[in-house]
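Q: What structure does this chain adopt?
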Amino acid sequence: MKRLLLLVILMLVIPAAAYAQSDVDVDYCDSSNPDKEQVIEACTALLELEPRNTNAYFTRAFVEAELGRYEDSIIDYSKVLFFTPRDSLAFNNRGYSFYRLENFLAAIRDYTAALDLDSTYAQARINRGYAYWANEQPELALADAEYLIATDQNAADGYYLRASLAQEAGDYLAAIEDYDRAIEIDPDWSSLYLGRGFAHWSLGDFATAAPDYYMWMELEASQVERLTASIAAEPFTLTMDGTTRFVLPIRVNAGDRLTIRAEALADTLDPALVLLDPSGTPILSDDDGGGGIAGLDAVIDGFRVSEDGLYRVVIGFAGGGDIGDVEVSVILQR
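A:
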């Protein structure tokens, strides 16, 4: 199952200041400006006036990375480092752009350079750990995670990385222990619930996984689309955008058998299912049990209902791609 690695660039806010006259208001060269194209235009104008202004290069590089223009970002961070070669933040952020271009060796070099300048730079260390992991060097990734945990017992990133590495190695119990600790530290981090849910699911504990998948969906997909029960009379298609979870009510009687299947219609989607009982408690879930195009379809197969009432099926995505169509079918055997 694919996992999203969420790397964080430390925010930099450049204070506004007055500069020489220009056709463009260079005061907009400020990373807090929501109009990112305007930021780039203003920084470019400022650099024409002050070609050694490292703040302008840094701000433009930061915004270029936000816009996904990683090659341009690398060029501008390199300018910063030409003028200020001991800027650990510039090394870290250029490493992020290399990472996003999947040039993991270059990313590792930059994160290492940042750490050589500041061994306490936790963000550079966790970023290097992710880069080592992506570069298929799990032992080195684990060493960075262990270092973070040893130096800061509240380093949720360190526990998350160590949990992810354990999970990839098939040690789901160790992964769950680290996810538990990370959730204690940062209970609003959605990826922790997805990771722990998948670990429980991998152990075949679909009931214990259910609350984690449901929490993941609540945190990650804040918009709710409530479906009508009649839609389930025949298979139907939902378009998932990564921000919406769908809730389908199903009225059942004790002893009924319920089967729900969510089939991705392209390999870019990873659906998940959570079943809520009449009280709204998550009681069952599935992630990748339904096979499908990429082996990522979800299915709850022949679940025997224990009590009469209105159950709800929550349909969301599980991190391995979040845009595309999914076909949902419901079979109720009385």
